[in-house]
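ok, trying the design again with the full structure, not the truncated one.
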């Protein structure tokens, strides 16, 4: 009988363990980035302006950046969210007038620190910016 218990004990322990990961987790990594942000940018085009970050409904890991770098709301560039990092892969926007790329880090629930560049085909301008959630 002891041998049977010793043989079954590991099996019972394995079956009794519960997996703590939930593959159907409802939390969206983009949630912390969504909203309207006040941008302070260096070198500055304008002292402060608003940027709206919205869900990209075509891709569950992407967001749309409306008025990013004062480029307006039409043809908004996209960014990819991974944890607390937001990355703008190199892409053309504004009817191919600009190529942009960069990244940011969510440093608190109300602050993103950015570095990015804009290329108009003649010059590349490098920016840093602080976004504060409204």
């Amino acid at each position: 009988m002891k041998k049977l218990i010793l043989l079954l004990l590991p099996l019972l322990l394995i079956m009794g363990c519960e997996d703590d990961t939930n593959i159907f987790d409802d939390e969206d990594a983009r949630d912390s980035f969504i909203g309207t942000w006040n941008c302070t940018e260096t070198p500055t085009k304008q002292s402060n302006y608003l940027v709206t970050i919205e869900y990209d409904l075509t891709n569950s890991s992407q967001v749309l950046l409306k008025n990013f770098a004062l480029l307006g709301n039409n043809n908004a560039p996209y960014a990819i969210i991974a944890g607390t990092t937001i990355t703008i892969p190199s892409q053309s926007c504004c009817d191919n007038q600009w190529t942009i790329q960069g990244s940011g880090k969510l440093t608190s629930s109300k602050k993103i620190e950015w570095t990015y560049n804009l290329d108009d085909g003649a010059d590349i301008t490098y920016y840093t910016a602080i976004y504060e959630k409204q």
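Keeping the full-length input from now on. The two ends are 68 Å apart (CA to CA).
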